[in-house]
Design goal:
By secondary structure, this protein is mostly beta strands. The chain has one domain. The chain contains 3 helices and 19 strands. Strands 3, 5, 7, 8, 10, 11, 13, 16, 17 and 18 form a 10-stranded mixed β-sheet that branches. It is globular and about 55 Å long.
Length: about 300
């Protein structure tokens, strides 16, 4: 496939390590996606945090959002969403779709935690995530949906999500997770569902799995932790009555896994909004500022001289 044949993406970000800090190596976006500057989480000067914003404010029937995130060269980055994204719908209209590609290579850590998708009445949502993680790298991702209180048996649409986990150079995926919801759950009161994937190919340390399993007794919602097939890592499934309890459970699982893997900071929602903006070693990012007005940011390779 040539570059001209590739599907057009709304977001294409590459992160690398430069001068001991995580920086943008590529920052391209177009409407409705946009990305501003990088923030530095308190307590970890080597990592970066980025907020992805969506000017459309909702996913409409027929929308297709394609994005690719890559962490390389020892980068440590946390990519978060601006807030819960409503998914609208109308009977007979095509579903809204999100197609995401996540890559973590050469000793990098990539955390992708969009806010839950809020399914409004008659919404049909399709999501496909390809995760490629090299041995020695880490990817952590959140897949979550909340059913709007107005949704009932007569107006609920559908939701499907597929996560494919692979290792570069291997011909077959390590794990495939597929979930489908075609009717309201019959378990009383449960309307918020999420999965946290901790992808670490060939893990040799079982502390992450042990710590995540302990959460089953203390979580604010229904929670179950399990290892992924093919020694690909771990998964935590959560079911809750509302989005707030779902977020709390996901945050607990995320922070537990990050601490077990040696992270220095906790994640609390879009906490990077309260972090400090990085003005050091990011001059190259300034070349993308005009793109924040036009919807296309220039590609650059590390800070400018």
């Amino acid at each position: 496939m040539t570059a001209a044949d590739e599907p057009r993406r709304c977001l294409d970000l590459v992160f690398s390590r430069y001068g001991g800090r995580t920086v943008f190596a590529r920052k391209r976006f177009r409407w409705p996606q946009s990305v501003g500057r990088m923030f530095r989480p308190t307590g970890d000067e080597f990592a970066g945090q980025v907020i992805v914003q969506n000017a459309g404010a909702a996913l409409q029937p027929g929308d297709i959002i394609r994005q690719r995130l890559t962490a390389a060269d020892g980068a440590v980055v946390d990519v978060v969403g601006q807030g819960a994204m409503p998914v609208t719908g109308r009977p007979g209209r095509p579903p809204a779709r999100e197609e995401t590609e996540l890559n973590a290579v050469t000793g990098s850590t990539l955390v992708h935690r969009p806010e839950p998708r809020l399914l409004l009445p008659n919404a049909n949502f399709r999501q496909h995530i390809n995760v490629s993680v090299a041995v020695g790298s880490i990817a952590i991702l959140v897949d979550a949906v909340v059913i709007h209180p107005d949704g009932d048996d007569g107006t609920f649409g559908s939701c499907t999500s597929t996560v494919v986990i692979s290792v570069p150079g291997e011909t077959a995926p390590r794990a495939v997770d597929a979930q489908s919801l075609a009717a309201l759950p019959r378990t009383a009161g449960l309307r918020a569902f999420g999965t946290l994937f901790v992808v670490t190919p060939d893990p040799t340390d079982g502390r992450v799995g042990e710590e995540l399993t302990r959460l089953e007794h203390d979580a604010p919602a229904y929670l179950a932790a399990t290892s992924l097939p093919g020694a690909a890592g771990w998964a935590v499934r959560i079911a809750a009555p509302d989005g707030q309890l779902l977020r709390t459970g996901l945050a607990q699982a995320l922070n537990t896994s990050r601490r077990s893997l040696g992270a220095q900071q906790d994640f609390r929602g879009s906490a990077c909004c309260r972090g400090r903006r990085d003005h050091e070693g990011q001059e190259g990012e300034g070349r993308g500022d005009p793109g924040q007005r036009t919807g296309v940011a220039d590609e650059f390779q590390g800070p400018a001289a």
